[in-house]
Design goal:
The structure is a homodimer. The first copy, chain A, is an alpha+beta fold. The first copy, chain A, is built from eleven helices and 26 strands. Chain A is globular, with a radius of gyration of 21 Å.
Chain lengths: 433, 433
């Protein structure tokens, strides 16, 4: 069911001025993360509000019931314990924080718990036990399929099975982590043998990350009708990809070193509560497409399982940085490019008895729109490296060059609602070691 | 370098009688695990010795230096902290325990720390941060390749790249965990569409598990010459597989639900120290095979990187159980079926900058020998389900039936050395839920 209450009121005002402005984090957002304030290196849970972060570690004593339980669970260095509590306490915390921020008599109580965001350090919001990357972007799957398998772009299982694979959890990092260009085995088309060296076709992938709240026991499943209850919220995810390493290694068992050198997420969990007003119907499937099997079918999910979230990618090159220029946009798309809903991914993942756990991260796969203005990777934008793109300053790119920084961003909007943002997911490619 | 010292002396004798016998765990083995004694549910590190388990949680006060450090690290509910210390403290602990068990003046001191193994509970030896499954069994790769891709059994990358993929960490369980037959999407050859239901082609896979000790930082690599130092030891691994689910889902991104419903490991970590006397040269590759690339080449590893470990699979069916029969053997092979050494897997895994962590688990992939007496899966034994095998009691199997129990076992042996065992890795298939 759609969850809308006073915390979504677009007219609500806070005594904290920057909570009312046009930042990514107005009063109606209240995303969850882990931070440490300037001069204090102890990570603890926080809620982004305007240009500030509210310290959840210090909030418990001002709350009661489920909200206090949630704040206590969020007081440590990861949100796993909060996620494990499920939707009830998380909603209670949201309502309580909203009430405190809109009640001017509480200002003196809460001010000491608000820290300036800019000098704070942000961390991964949760310890990721397992990371699974799906492949729900059907335009991306078709675009990439054409490059890797011209005769067979979309395999026969694609419209029945939410295709996914296990990714590497240890190399997931929070926004702002720079990393060296990976090395690996590469076999160029004209070489008779592979050689080991730096990746020449380094790429980004624009994805959404789905944070799992409470999970299921091994051998149990998660019915589609309740699957959404198992999602704590969303974040941006950059699934950096070494295309030349991938092309050589990926058969028959899938991508491995091509993807596990780093994956970057944005620091704030945009909760399913915050996103409730931006729910939309799952895009209609073409007439000829098969109906989802029963374990993936739910009328409510079909009506409200997608989100109107706009996603953008910007690049900042070394030359632009030296010239004092702003990042320029590479693409702008929408999360509705998903062929499967987040709930369908959760239900499918657990359908064979695999146990999900609080803090598991699911990637949607690259979300590309139907035309090139919304392609979510350079592989697609440059047509497999054959057609370089030209940036406003005249530079060209087929794939990423050293010192290129990528910035993913996103926001949810709807008429008569406040627009809420996701913050950014940044990372810079450093020269190979 | 080969590490052999007094702890490998085949003539050594303990004051503990069952440490001198022909169990899997004689004095020269000293494998590491996590257990709780009867009537006490607090898991702690232990060393298997004969029919007993030595409580490492209580041992620290009797040790000094590195050995005490290691015992302290092993006193908790997982061995991750011990693994993180690397080989030095682990070896010091081995030497110290060996000394205590062979010095009869220490019997009164140590007896109170010895618990009967049979009524003890065994746990996963470490928290698995990430699990990676490789595909090093070249006979298996050829056998399976023929079934899935008759025209193209061994892909062109196989002899260059140690093929591997990320597996699911949350569903790894210790020996003795029974599990329901998984359900999933299955498309039979004559059906136009897939249907969701219980797996009809449930299989086991005989593998070795490799426990990672200390790891590497993200962006760093592990040179092949020091890769073996990053291995704490080995265990048995059953990579249960739903072949019909796998066949439909695995392209293009690899196995997913077909493998993540459970993977089972044996509880004892047979340390690289214990295995040192059984090191053998990597089997010679055929003349035509390419030489490994430089980052995977090491003369010492080529001379000593393989192990003479014999691996067996037994089955116990419901009918055999009812008749009071013993499990019957399905296959007997050798770990030398690996095309790549354990050190090569570690070096490859980190070669692109992926960070390994203490307690990561690497699977070798199914280790099948050259002929059917040593095939490590029913898929191979039954030639893809086309040729049922007959058990001694007349029952036949193509794939696993409900209430079938699989028992993997292994031992290392060498002339003039004591034979050491791995214990067993058991699991029973229960009816689908």
């Amino acid at each position: 069911m759609t969850y809308i209450d006073e915390t979504h009121d677009p007219k609500a005002q806070s005594w904290l001025e920057d909570a009312n402005g046009h930042s990514d984090f107005p009063l109606q957002n209240l995303p969850l993360g882990v931070f440490s304030p300037e001069g204090d290196d102890k990570p603890r849970g926080g809620i982004a509000i305007g240009d500030h972060i509210l310290d959840l570690g210090g909030l418990e004593s001002h709350l009661s019931g489920d909200a206090a339980l949630a704040a206590k669970a969020a007081g440590g260095s990861s949100l796993n314990a909060l996620f494990a509590l499920g939707a009830g306490p998380r909603r209670a915390l949201r309502r309580a924080v909203f009430a405190l921020l809109t009640d001017s008599t509480k200002e003196n109580l809460i001010r000491p718990l608000l820290f300036s965001a800019t000098p704070s350090t942000l961390y991964l919001p949760a310890h990721v036990g397992d990371y699974t990357d799906f492949y729900t972007g059907i335009n991306h799957a078709e675009n990439v399929g054409k490059l890797f398998r011209p005769d067979n772009p979309l395999l026969p299982n694609y419209k029945y099975v939410p295709i996914g694979y296990h990714g590497r959890a240890s190399s997931i990092r929070v926004s702002g982590t720079n990393f060296p260009r990976p090395k690996g085995q590469i076999k160029t088309p004209d070489a008779s043998e592979p050689a080991f060296g730096p990746c020449h076709r380094l790429d980004y992938e624009l994805e959404m990350g789905i944070w799992v709240s409470h999970g299921n026991d091994l051998g149990d499943t998660i019915p589609i009708a309740s699957a959404k209850q198992h999602i704590a919220g969303l974040c941006l995810l950059n699934d950096w990809s070494a295309r030349d390493i991938q092309a050589w290694e990926y058969q028959p068992l899938g991508p491995f070193l091509a993807k596990n050198f780093i994956s970057t997420v944005s620091p704030w969990v945009i909760t399913t509560e915050a996103l409730a007003p931006y729910q939309v119907a799952q895009p209609a499937r073409p007439e000829d497409d098969p109906k989802p099997l029963a374990y993936l079918s739910d009328a409510e999910d079909q009506k409200t399982g997608a989100y109107n979230v706009i996603m953008e990618v910007h690049i900042l090159t070394e030359k632009m940085r030296a010239a004092g220029e702003e990042p320029c946009r590479l693409s702008k798309g929408n999360m509705s490019a998903m062929y499967w809903t987040a709930a369908q991914l959760v239900a499918h993942h657990a359908s064979g008895g695999c146990n999900l756990q609080p803090g598991d991260l699911l990637g949607t796969g690259t979300l590309s729109g139907a035309d090139s203005s919304s392609y979510g990777s350079l592989l697609e934008l440059s047509n497999g490296g054959k057609a370089p793109i030209t940036l406003p300053n005249g530079e060209t790119r087929t794939f990423l060059e050293d010192n290129d920084e990528l910035i993913l961003s996103a926001y949810a909007e709807r008429e008569n609602r406040v627009r809420i943002g996701f913050g950014s997911c940044r990372g810079k490619v450093q020269p190979a070691r």
